[in-house]
Structures are given as C-alpha cells and as structure tokens.
Amino acid sequence: MAVNASARMLGICVVALTLAAPAWADVSRDQAAAEAQRQTGGRVLSVDKTESGRRTVWRVKVVTPRGEVRMVFIDAGAGAGG
Hints:
The chain has about 80 residues and is an alpha+beta fold. The chain has 2 helices and 3 strands, in the order H-H-E-E-E. Strand 1 and strand 2 form a beta hairpin. The protein is elongated, with a radius of gyration of 19 Å. About 15% of the residues have low confidence.
C-alpha cells in the first residue's frame, strides 16, 4: 500500500510540473515573432537570438503597416518586450 501511495504522489507531482512548465520555459522563436507582430501590427521579417546586457533576447525585425522597419526585443526568458 505504501508503494502505491508513493507512486500515485510521484505521478501527481510529475503532472503538476508538466502543467507548470510553460510558466518558466523559455520563449520560443515563434512566440517572440507573434508578440512582436502583436505589438507593432506589422509583418515579421526576421527573428534572431542575441544578448542584451546579461539577458538573452529575441531581436525581431518587423515592417509596420506604415512601411517603417523596426526592431523589437523580446526577453527570451520572460517574454517582456520593448
């Protein structure tokens, strides 16, 4: 009985960690592109991973609806952009 309860508890922990993973997972290239597109309303031209200070960021080049080319930086760990 103790083994069954331990196995059940382990299974619950694994499921909980799996469900929580996106909260602390890195931001993907596609997610960064989607966020930059959402922020600017433009079309994504390129996405590159680079360093900014001590942070890893996605550098997303977009062309806005007005024809301006902009760089949007998305934090690869947290998703915050600027």
